[in-house]
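Newbie here. two chains, one complex. Structure please?
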Amino acid sequence: MVNSVIMHEIDSVATVTKNVSAGEAITYILNSEPVTIKSSADIPIYHKVAVKSVKKGEAIFKYGEIIGYATAGIQIGDHVHTHNLSN
Amino acid sequence: MKFNGYIRSDGHVGIRNHVVVMPGVICAAGVAQKIANQVKGAQYLYNPNGCAQNSSDTAITLEILSGLIANGNVFGVLIVGLGCEMIREDKYLEAIRKKTDKPVYYISIQKEGGINKTVEKGKEIVNTLIKESSKCVRKECDLSELILGLECGGSDPTSGFSANAVLGNTSDRIVDLGGTTILCETPEAIGTEHILKSRGKTPEIGQKLYDTIIKFDQMFKNNGEDIRKTNPSPGNKASGITTLEEKSLGCIHKSGTRPFSGVYEYGQMVDKKGLMFMDGTAYDVASVVSLVAGGAQMVAFTTGMGTPVGNALVPVIKITGNNDTATRLEDMIDFDTSSSISGTKSVEELGKELLDYMVRVCNGEEVKAEINNISDMAINQFYSYA
């Protein structure tokens, strides 16, 4: 069941469109195909989840553009917000 | 792609055929409204100004009001002045005639001799205008004649990734068909100035875009407010927006992906085709008004939480990606993009559907704000009234 959206194929994150619990499946549509990952944390509705792993200091992409940089290492399925993303 | 519009003698194309009654100064507003109320089919256009502003704010007021009257959706206008105000007949005609040759009548309360005499004279003139306007017929026009304003307000997270994504897709389609779309609300672009700079069709346009945004940012700083520090707000962060760049990217997303072909001042008439940027406030009503003054015959307004804002002269289409808003507040919403969130429709599909809907609106289908007769008016100003 689709419960997230991704804006651009180079994006590091998708936005969940329902509250997600740790361990739950997160599915988004990319190029008309569903992609599913597993969340590693509770993620509130409309917050971001990593769909690519990002090293500390690397750029994080959303809408195909840089929205900030990882302040810690990020794995696929991690909640991405003020604790690990900053401009 | 075609629509049926009114081709004015000045070359502007309209999708409505309004006969407008406008006070020349706020003091005449009550009398002007009385006239409009008593003539079937007349459209009242409120004017909060006309006096007591310094020269730069007076210039802005005149630019906006003359632009509104010149808009292709207007057949003609009766301006009702008081008699002693700063902006009188000669200044109005000078500003309006630079932009259009359409019928403009002017009467003033002090000259006519009071409320009743002004109302009677006004009704006579407006009835004549209505009769003349009824001779106008829609003719087939190319979609490249469309000028669409892009606006957002009452945003929530769905605005960025649903409603604005869909509107951006529609904007790309309109620009590809030779039409014009106008992005505005400068403060909402702060944080994306480097991105917009790279989207300028020429380096000069890109630089002007960049400078316009930085100037607005600086204006706030000069008043002791740093938008970069106060945004995203605590409310934004709670709702999932982490950085200023992310917030602003969500806003500019509604401008799609095409290059910018021009940068205009607040309310300045847009004289080229393509994607444009108009400088100005993000104060919703004043922003919508500036788009109409710039020539937009229609405004697309994305709203996550819902807003009833309308305009006297143009249909303001309300678009939301929030299904709850589209359902609970359905008498304010025209287009629901939430199927892009559930995955049942793609952004591309919705972008095409929205364009098809816009053509129907061009051809006369009324939007909720028009059905509800909602007409909001505000003009930005930088100084106090004297």
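Moderator note: DSSP finds 16 helices and 14 strands in chain B. Residues 286 and 378 of chain B are 5 Å apart (CA to CA). Thread marked as resolved.
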